Amino acid sequence: MLWQNWQNLPSVSSVTIDWTPLWLCVGHMGPVEHIRTLGGSVTSCSSGWGSSLSSSSTCVIGHTYPSDSGLYWCESDDGRQSLMANITISDKSVVLESPPGPVPEGSNVTLRCRTRTASSSERLFSFYKDGHLISSSSTAELSIYNVSTSDQGLYRCHLHQGDQSLHSHVFASPEGPASSCAPPAFTIIRHLLVGSPFLLSTIFMTLVHRNRNQGQVLETSNLPATH
Q: Fewest 10 Å CB contacts: which of 4, 23, 33, 117?
């Protein structure tokens, strides 16, 4: 069983801010089972936490809390296991968001420094790797291009005259390109329905208007030519 040897699996760390959705995706493994361990209790997605999507390769937690912090990984039907992701859901005022898993070598990744307080345009963001300053600007993002093993390490961000984030671990993987983890359209609409009825109605009216215009164009194009 997977949970008999989970302690021996390699892991990577990631930190994200609370009350935001958490998407757990895995590529090139087919249908998988998403698993997490919290306080020694091992459970699968949809067993009291998260929702498995129809693709069977994605699990989503709609709203996260610090209590969702823990080790996450997945296992395919043929017994293959992913790396562990040690995900921390933070309620700190500053959070450095990073991928909750290994980054394929040769790809690009963006680390985002998020704050609950003043506007990001009013702040100076400093990024550190393994304790060394690597960037300082008014931009709340740090982009790493063509990721390699030399980019691996512990990253954190610091606000000038403010707080600093917890460390986030960036790990480079020799595997192929990362698969897309875009939320399905139905799930996006579901969140819009719950969180913003006005926005949803606006999108709906726009689609109706566009379809009506397309229908008028189609009817005009089907009219017999006059001479």
A: 4
